[in-house]
């Protein structure tokens, strides 16, 4: 950590600490640590940096995506079908997933900043756009910094460089005279309180996972005796409980990774409306928002947040046709080669379309009174939690056989329901919605221009 928090200037702080990286990777990968370091430092980072330099800013983002995702897929296929099928062991593919996000994010952000016009960018792309080519040292430091080498979370290149250089965290919240949300800002506040809170959360999540997970094994959902002798309503309750007890291990890992970055001083995101510091710039989860989510969209927005941002920025915002399906497909490829991943994300895409149709057509009828909205929220909470559990069973079981067995035991009822809802309830395509928003914004711009012209004439 001293390499990052050193006061000897950005160059020293940017230097990647190889011995720390090596020890961290060795503790995770064992005999694969050498391959991990070679992949991170020599292959992916070096090759993709060469691609960016040689191919130019117009098309380098496409080449970097193909190379990084292709090599990640090769490693995952090798791991699954050559070494240890079905064994969820920690190895080099975990860090490879993180560095794939970083490599592709940088490539797209450079493309936005150096190859596209300002008016072609949305607000997020303008904020994250990289206006100059990073040096080799900066590029390697961003990809291989030891704070997030194992579990991330992924951050934007601009945020990382701002942290290294000690510049303001985000320009969007800065007010004149060095104030943020009306509060004087000289230095980032101490992260100690937030780190302690997140470490306490880690401890509780680990305790819950170790004590409860074995009580509700997921495999029981596809056990023949359980399916034959258990009423369907009890199967639904057990499915929810079995998936609920799995989530704490993800809460533990992502909260710990967030706390590590915060302890180094990275992750400050300004002050809230009450003047309290926020350390959620690179947070990956919001636990209460997940457990109380009343829609599929809200759940996904609060789960693996940085990966969701990456998928949105790299795929969803740029795909001209059917971005929802393309985004879920990219997510499945990024996660790995197990067939269960593809079943999960194909199901997720279908449920997303159905949930969007329900939200657009049904929800407005329940907003007339608070009591109606409360009933709607209760129903949608239960539906969301069951839909999520139903969706991620193949993600946990990994194989095709057990996954299809589970869906058959439920008569694929959620699949059928989602297809019927998507067909019966009309929803405008994203392309048409964006077109309407632009056309609606045009008159306001014209009226603003005319008002300004009238004022100029009056003066």
UniProtKB/TrEMBL annotation:
One of its GO terms (molecular function) is acyltransferase activity. GO terms for cellular component: endoplasmic reticulum membrane. The keyword Metal-binding does not apply. Residues 437-459 are annotated as: Disordered. Keywords: Acyltransferase, Endoplasmic reticulum, Membrane, Transferase, Transmembrane, Transmembrane helix. The keyword Endoplasmic reticulum applies. GO terms for biological process: lipid modification. Residues 439-459 have a biased composition (Polar residues). It comes from the Eukaryota. The chain crosses the membrane at residues 40-57, 64-82, 340-358, 378-400, 406-427. It is found in: Endoplasmic reticulum membrane. Its main location: endoplasmic reticulum. It is a multi-pass membrane protein. Pfam families: MBOAT. This is Membrane bound O-acyltransferase domain containing 2a. It comes from Danionella cerebrum.
């Amino acid at each position: 950590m001293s390499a990052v928090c050193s006061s000897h200037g950005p160059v020293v702080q940017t230097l990647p600490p190889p011995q720390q990286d090596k020890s961290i990777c060795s503790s995770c990968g064992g005999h694969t640590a050498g391959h991990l370091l070679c992949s991170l430092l020599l292959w992916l980072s070096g090759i993709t940096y060469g691609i960016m330099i040689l191919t130019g800013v117009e098309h380098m983002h496409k080449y970097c995506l193909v190379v990084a995702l292709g090599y990640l897929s090769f490693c995952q296929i090798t791991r699954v079908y050559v070494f240890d099928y079905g064994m969820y062991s920690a190895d080099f593919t975990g860090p490879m997933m993180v560095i794939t996000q970083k490599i592709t994010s940088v490539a797209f952000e450079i493309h936005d900043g150096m190859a596209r016009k300002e008016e072609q960018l949305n607000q997020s792309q303008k904020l994250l756009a990289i206006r100059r080519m990073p040096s080799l040292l900066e590029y390697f430091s961003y990809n291989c910094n030891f704070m997030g080498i194992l579990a991330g979370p992924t951050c934007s290149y601009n945020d990382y460089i701002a942290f290294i250089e000690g510049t303001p965290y985000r320009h969007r919240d800065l007010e004149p005279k060095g104030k943020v949300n009306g509060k004087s800002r000289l230095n980032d506040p101490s992260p100690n309180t937030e780190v302690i809170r997140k470490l306490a959360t880690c401890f509780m999540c680990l305790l819950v996972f170790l004590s409860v997970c074995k009580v509700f094994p997921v495999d029981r959902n596809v056990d023949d005796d359980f399916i034959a002798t258990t009423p369907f309503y009890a199967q639904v309750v057990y499915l929810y409980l079995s998936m609920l007890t799995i989530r704490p291990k993800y809460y533990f890992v992502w909260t710990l990774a967030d706390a590590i970055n915060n302890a180094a001083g990275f992750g400050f995101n300004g002050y809230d409306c009450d003047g309290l510091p926020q350390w959620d710039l690179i947070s990956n989860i919001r636990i209460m928002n997940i457990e109380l989510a009343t829609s599929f969209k809200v759940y996904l927005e609060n789960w693996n947040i940085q990966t969701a941002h990456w998928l949105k920025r790299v795929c969803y915002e740029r795909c001209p046709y059917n971005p929802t399906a393309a985004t879920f497909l990219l997510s499945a490829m990024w996660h790995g080669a197990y067939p269960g991943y593809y079943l999960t994300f194909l199901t997720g895409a279908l449920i997303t379309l159905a949930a969007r149709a329900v939200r657009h057509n049904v929800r407005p009828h329940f907003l007339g009174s608070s009591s109606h909205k409360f009933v709607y929220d209760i129903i949608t909470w239960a539906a969301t939690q069951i839909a999520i559990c139903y969706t991620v069973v193949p993600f946990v079981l990994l194989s095709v056989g057990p996954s299809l067995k589970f869906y058959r035991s439920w008569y694929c009822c959620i699949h059928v329901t989602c297809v019927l809802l998507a067909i019966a309830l009309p929803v405008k395509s994203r392309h048409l919605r964006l077109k309407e928003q632009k056309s609606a914004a045009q008159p306001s711009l014209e009226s603003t221009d005319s008002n300004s012209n009238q004022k100029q004439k009056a003066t």
